[in-house]
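Reopening this one. Same input as before:
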Amino acid sequence: MEPTLTWLDLTATDRNQMRRVLDLFREQGTVDEMGLGTLRDTLSDSLFPGTSTIQTRLRYMLFVPWMYQGLERRRIRSDEVAERARKAELKLIEPLLASEEDEGVIGARSRGSLKRLPSEVYWSGLVRWGIFKCGQSQSWYHTHFEALSKGGHSVERSDDPGLTWSQQPTWHPRIPQPRDSFPHDASFALERDEAEFLQERIADGCAGTLLAWLAREGSDLPAVDFWDDPAVAKASTRIQEVVEVARRFSLHVEGMPLLYNLLVAERHREEFGGEEGWIDRYREDLAAWEGREAKESPYDSGAMWDFVGSRKARLPEEQSRRFVGEWSRRLAEIGVRGIAGDRVLRKLVADREMQLKRRRARLANSTRLLHYNGRVGVGRMDFRWFRVRRLLIDLHEGLAA
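Same output, byte for byte:
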């Protein structure tokens, strides 16, 4: 029987958190089998603030404000805005699918049953980039919608109840306005003034980051891996340091999920007669990774911990730091060769799964092992670049329009 997920009586916040977790399973390399998600996300936020793994196209950063501005003009009540906004967002789906380029349409398959609306997907970016000027959550905005649409004189700040907004604009005052025919002719192609506005917002809201640098100095042909992009070589020393921390870490830990999958494939073969090809593939993948890792200097995890500390981010739990440290020390001892057969590393990875999943660990739970499909959590960390790359292409194509 296939595993299923049942929704219990959760709050809206709980549901949103669960959706964010489930969204990670949709993209290659984002499944966190070895418990390194905190480190990955800290680097992702430092490199590409305001982005996520489920953002698809850049013009949604304008679609969402345009829809809400329309509702503000119509003086929609606070208790109606969520439903009215949902209907407005769903109206985007068909025009976008009918446009010349329909890659990245949110709701392309689910249509009217769409659960994760574009506004929810892009809200953190709208706040971080300074497009939504109030700097608050979407639920806060809905609660205070009527007062804000009338000028905001009596809306209390959630972080300081003693103060009120006074003529604070809800949306950035220089946001370009859509054509009168919007949303009926919606497309992902940015007008030049729209691209310039978004470029400015990224520059102001993400100053000193790789995202801001590539928004200004990048091109509409970004490299497959951001650390190989020619523009990165011209960035500031600080940006290049962050890029190098990310690049080196992603390569160093790439072998962990490969070894984990090899262990699971072997166990699956023992218990259920799984495919021999899975085992051969992971031995080959590990050998290829060993060759790439061997060309690098020995990994210094101190650079990662210093970086995380400098960002005032939540440090990973001691067990995670110990896990990375033991992995690094063992690789240094054996010279990054023979990983597939090394008993110490095999035990390290197996113990890590038990530590993270306990009774749900595939290496200890035959039911979970039975449903192994031959590949889980593999792929080098790219820190959301697979999404950010598309956003930057949209931006620079718009700037050239």
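So the earlier flakiness isn't reproducible anymore. For the record, Strands lie at 156-157, 160-164.
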